[in-house]
Amino acid sequence: MKVNIFGLGYVGSVMAGCLAKAGHQVLGVDVQTERVDQVNRGESPVAEPGLAEYFAEAHAAGTLKATRDVSQAMAHGSISFLCVGTPSKADGSLDTSAVENVCEEIGLALAESPAKEPHTVVIRSTVMPGTLKRCEDKLRKATETEPGPRFRLLINPEFLREGSAKARRWPTSTSLPSPSWAAMIPPGPPP
Ligand SMILES: NC(=O)c1ccc[n+]([C@@H]2O[C@H](COP(=O)([O-])OP(=O)(O)OC[C@H]3O[C@@H](n4cnc5c(N)ncnc54)[C@H](O)[C@@H]3O)[C@@H](O)[C@H]2O)c1
Asked: Ligand 1 site: residues with CB under 6 angstroms?
């Protein structure tokens, strides 16, 4: 599959490296030029056992690249995993603005791109109830469409454990609940 990963921090980099290792064509998207450049040199932006080899192999095979350009990502993949940061605010609540901004950017890029199959957006970042609705509103407003023909929005929260993230990559199954669509995907290959 052709897959986009938004956010090349711990969660996004582990996911990008493991999906490329599993044979997918992965395009990472990040606002940090240094992280994008690292991926395009075949280097992992984060330190995680075994990940450097995955990035080097995928770079050599041409299956893992990165960009800052959201439109390029929409032209590349039919699914985008959002792994951007959701830091805590001073009052202890989560700042989900990066997730919501990416949904808006994806919607605007979709609106500018030729209509094809619906683009699937999967939120992997940690968010609180209510965020999904705001993200769906961003996508709806930017594309001027309802969920279905141009986009689908799902949530699949990450439970990564830093230091042993690669070993825990393949769960027995993954459920993807959504306000408007749902799916159960089969287990992936063993690590
Ligand atoms: N690290 C963990 O062990 C872990 C475990 C479970 C869940 N999570 C959750 O996963 C999410 C990501 O965590 P992380 O540790 O990978 O964060 P991180 O801070 O390491 O990385 C986030 C990345 O998102 C990028 N980013 C920010 N705004 C962007 C935008 N508009 N477009 C593209 N990229 C953008 C940043 O530049 C950064 O590279 C958070 O919600 C976190 O709570 C993390």
From this structure: 6-12, 29-32, 35, 83-86, 98, 101-102, 125-126, 158-160, 162
